[in-house]
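Narrative progress, year one. The postdoctoral researcher (J.K.) led the effort to move from monomer predictions toward full complexes, under supervision of the PI. The following entry was the first complex the group processed end to end, covering 274 residues in total.
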Amino acid sequence: MERILFYLIAAVIIVFSVLTVTSRRILRAAVYLLFVLMATAGFYFMLNYNFLGAVQLTVYSGGIVVLIVFAVLLTAHMDHKLDPPDRLKALAVGLLSLFGMGITLYALRSFPWAVTALPEGAYDIEAIGMRLLSYGDKGYVLPFEVISVLLLAAMVAAIIIAKKSTSND
Amino acid sequence: MIEGIGVFDILVVSTAMFFIGIYGFLVRKNLITILMSVELVLNAVNINFVVFNKYLYPDLLQGYMFSLFAIGIAAAEAAVAIAIILNVYRQMKGIDVEHVDTMKY
């Protein structure tokens, strides 16, 4: 049962990834990207990482896709169709990507994975929250604080860049 | 762990996603579609971290935390990128990469 669900999610991810990069209507490409990100959240739920799946759903498919859709609506017409890519270039890049994928999969295939049967740690939200704010061993308070500063900087930067400049127009 | 599914099976999916993202990054001309391809690549890497955490070191939380932070950084990156794209659109009247060559030469 779980295997079938895994193959279903994998098929959804691969098919909609391809559609995301080949669709000529940009809004549809954004919706296909949404499907890919939600299927990825499904992966996380299957692996029993519920909090990570929830973060993926809210931040990625809730936040980033909405941001992309807004950008599409602000910069393009609804029925605007992108030009098809140069045939030769698409072929060359596709072959290059397939080549890279082949090499990577060959390397992954021949690597001896040491899958362990250790008991799992605690993955509930309480344990993760304690880890994020812990100063001690295996605590993550430093990256937590650094990313909060980074998010503030990104927010200020985004506002300043996107603001209409009044001085030079 | 998913029953009957090994590390390699999940890595095949994330590798395919990664290289589809690379393909889109190189072929697409519109800046927003390039951003979408970058999101695909980031997402594939997140899957890798989570899978390594789950299958190889289930007693630690390192891969889990790393993908949590990577998701946050991806959100910041998308916000800044879209601000830049809107600014480029306002100044150049188009967001195809071929039109954005003012900083060249």
